[in-house]
Amino acid sequence: MNMIGAHLRYRYAFGRMDEAMEKGWLMEAITIQESILSGRLLSALHCKEVSVNPRDSFHSLIEGFRKHVDTEDPHVETLAVRLQEWRMKRNESLHSICRHIDDPYDEDTINKLEHKLVEAA
Q: What is d(CA 31, CA 75) in angstroms, rounded to the nearest whole number?
């Protein structure tokens, strides 16, 4: 099966992610990173003949990976845990742009937000 379309999309995504990182567009980089990771999880689940919807949340894809991919391999669990940790950092950094997760009167709020973005990216 020729997967040229998938290859072109991944090549584009990695190029765009690299450009976003170089230019400091961390929110874009993080969003592309999630898309790449979701695509790889979908592929892993598809190889195991697990029926998944490409629109499933990142969280459910990680849990599906944890449940259906070689549970005897300790690396699977480690990877699933690390993906969930990154997902939570991603959510906190992207969703805290205008939500008052921290003190709304803190004058250092932008520096704290940028630190979260750098950590996630």
A: 25
The list of the chain residues with pLDDT below 50 reads: none
The pTM of the whole model exceeds 0.70: yes
CB 87 within 8 A of CB 62: yes
Query: What is the C-alpha separation between 107 and 1, in angstroms, rounded?
Result: 55
Q: Pull the structure tokens for residue 5.
A: 């379309």
Q: Which DSSP string do the residues of the chain spell out, in sequence order?
A: ---HHHHHHHHHHHHHHHHHHHHT-HHHHHHHHHHHHHHHHHHHHHHTT----TTS-HHHHHHHHHHHS-TT-HHHHHHHHHHHHHHHHHHHHHHTSSS-SS-TT-TTHHHHHHHHHHHH-
- Residues 35, 13 contacting (CB under 8 angstroms): yes
Which tokens go with 6? 């998938």
